């Protein structure tokens, strides 16, 4: 709450609040597990936004399967030409809210029909559950598994003196190949010597969607490097003008996140 220097005779405000014991959302990890709406199988509460961040083992993809589903159905509001979900679930491909949705068409799922089974491209997925202030139902129960290998990403050999390369899905050569839409991939490299160790990544070839005019940020597809356990940003790249670029990471841990078309080499020191 902030006020200006001008004085007015105003009464101000009063806000009441209540904390809840039936919390929801949070960080979820492991090879499999169950996610349920608050109070399931009893009616879920009003006015909730629950966010589960699911992280599976590196190199595995997450598959989400709903086994029970009963939410408020879509409603057409006055003046609107289409019905919209009021209470809904929303699945995201990756660890960030800004990542691509996994459900096609409306992206949201509501009502009593079981949502289709969806899988992430890598080892991260977000599930969002949102409710309004009107009707409530039984809610949902869902299971996630990591039985299938990821479409991209994985663990890189971090032994001192080792080297190797990895590519985006569909890469054939610097002049051929295509990666698919809505990918979110992570590669992780952990140096076997935690002290006095480093790694150099070299982008040999790269052709991905570039920046918008007059922008210094990668607005769409991007390749990002992070160093250390704190995930310190080491650089973000896009477009096709970075071939030959080297990224030096002085930390023993490296994380590479991307939605790109590239071939990379790395050398561990």
Can you walk through the features of this model?
It comes from Daphnia magna. It holds the Pfam family CUB. Keywords: Disulfide bond, Repeat. This is Cubilin. InterPro entries: CUB_dom (IPR000859), Sperma_CUB_dom_sf (IPR035914). With about 270 residues, the chain is mostly beta strands. The protein has two domains: about 25-145, Spermadhesin, CUB domain (Jelly Rolls, Sandwich); about 155-269, Spermadhesin, CUB domain (Jelly Rolls, Sandwich). Helices cover about 0% and strands about 40% of the residues. It is built from no helices and 21 strands. Strands 1, 3, 5, 6, 7 and 9 form a six-stranded mixed beta sheet that branches. Strand 5 and strand 6 (about 100) form a beta hairpin. The radius of gyration is 23 Å and the shape is globular. The termini are far apart. About 30% of the residues are buried. The model has no long low-confidence stretch (mean pLDDT about 85).
Which properties best describe this structure?
6-stranded mixed beta sheet, Jelly Rolls, 269 residues, disulfide bond, mainly beta, globular
Fold topology:
Blueprint lengths: L25 E4 L2 E5 L12 E7 L7 E8 L17 E6 L6 E2 L6 E2 L8 E2 L4 E7 L8 E7 L8 E3 L6 E5 L3 E3 L2 E2 L7 E6 L8 E8 L16 E5 L4 E6 L8 E4 L3 E6 L3 E7 L1
């Amino acid at each position: 709450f902030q006020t200006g220097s001008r004085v007015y005779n105003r009464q101000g405000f009063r806000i009441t609040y209540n904390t809840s014991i039936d919390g929801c959302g949070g960080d979820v990890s492991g090879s499999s597990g169950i996610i349920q709406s608050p109070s399931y199988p009893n009616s879920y509460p009003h006015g909730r936004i629950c966010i589960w961040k699911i992280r599976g083992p590196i190199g595995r993809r997450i598959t989400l399967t709903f086994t029970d589903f009963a939410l408020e159905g879509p409603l057409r509001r006055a003046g609107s030409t289409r019905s919209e979900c009021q209470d809904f679930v929303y699945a995201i491909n990756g660890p960030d809210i800004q990542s691509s949705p996994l459900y096609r068409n409306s992206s949201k799922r509501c009502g009593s029909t079981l949502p289709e089974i969806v899988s992430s491209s890598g080892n991260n997925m977000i599930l969002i559950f949102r409710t309004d202030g009107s009707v409530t139902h039984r809610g949902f129960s869902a299971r996630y598994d990591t039985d299938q290998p990821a479409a991209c990403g994985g663990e890189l050999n971090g032994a001192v003196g080792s080297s190797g390369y990895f590519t985006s899905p569909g890469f054939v050569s610097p002049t051929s190949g295509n990666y698919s839409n809505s990918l979110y991939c992570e590669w992780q490299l952990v140096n076997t010597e935690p002290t006095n160790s480093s790694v150099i990544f070299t982008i040999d070839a790269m052709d991905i969607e570039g920046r918008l005019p007059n922008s210094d940020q990668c607005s769409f597809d991007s390749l990002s490097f992070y160093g250390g356990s704190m995930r310190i940003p080491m650089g973000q790249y896009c477009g096709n003008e970075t071939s030959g670029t080297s990224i030096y990471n002085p930390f023993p841990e490296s994380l590479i996140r991307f939605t790109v078309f590239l071939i990379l080499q790395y050398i561990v020191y």
